[in-house]
Design goal:
By secondary structure, the chain is of the alpha+beta class. It has 2 domains: 5-51 and 145-176; 55-121, no CATH class. Helix content is 44%, strand content 14%. It contains 5 helices and 4 strands; from the N terminus they run βαβαααβαβ. Helix 3 (55-81) runs antiparallel to helix 4 (98-121). The protein starts with a strand and ends with a strand.
Length: 177
């Protein structure tokens, strides 16, 4: 019985080969494909099947909640809890509430964006299985890696290895858990 693996990783020498390999992997039915490169590559997100993020929506909701909460807190304090007649103005003088409302909107939106980004990225993750591959340290300098994850439904290591060999990578390695 073999040890469980995270997946199979192929090493490529160029960004173009990585994008082509990722696109072919997705088209051939591999649902969980990860790509690693030392710099951003245009089109790689589409090739690996990145569908988008909910971080912008969470940021919007956080900003609305923060702005609404800031405005409500000021309105409640000035109109309901402790109304004071200052210069004959009405207690609900909304222009005076705008600076705090704006600041609370920005604060809550920023905090929500950071938390949503951490959740979306699965952070904090102190250890990732790809770091068990000795050659992976080249991913920060001059190599490009494609990983077919083993937790995908109907994953067969032998079939995945044959598929990766067809793509002519520099090297194929198993990624241990």
């Amino acid at each position: 019985m073999s040890a469980p693996i995270y997946g199979l990783m192929a090493e490529f020498a160029s960004a173009d080969k990585l994008v082509a390999a990722a696109r072919e992997a997705r088209e051939s039915g591999h649902p969980r494909v990860e790509a690693y490169s030392p710099f951003p590559i245009e089109g790689l997100d589409d090739a690996v099947g990145f569908a988008g993020s909910r971080v912008p929506l969470a940021t919007l909701i956080g900003g609305i909640v923060g702005g609404g909460g800031g405005f409500f807190l000021q309105w409640y304090a000035a109109v309901i809890d402790y109304p004071i007649n200052i210069g004959g103005r009405p207690p609900n003088s909304w222009p005076a509430f705008i600076p705090i409302t704006f600041e609370m909107t920005v604060l809550f939106a920023a905090l929500t964006a950071v938390v949503a980004m951490f959740v979306a990225n699965g952070l904090p993750k102190l250890r990732h299985p790809v770091f068990n591959v000795r050659e992976f340290d080249h991913s920060t300098r001059n190599r490009f890696f494609l990983c077919l994850r083993a937790d995908a439904p109907k994953f067969d290591a032998a079939q995945a290895r044959r598929f990766l060999e067809r793509l002519e990578p520099l090297k194929i390695v198993e990624v241990p858990l």
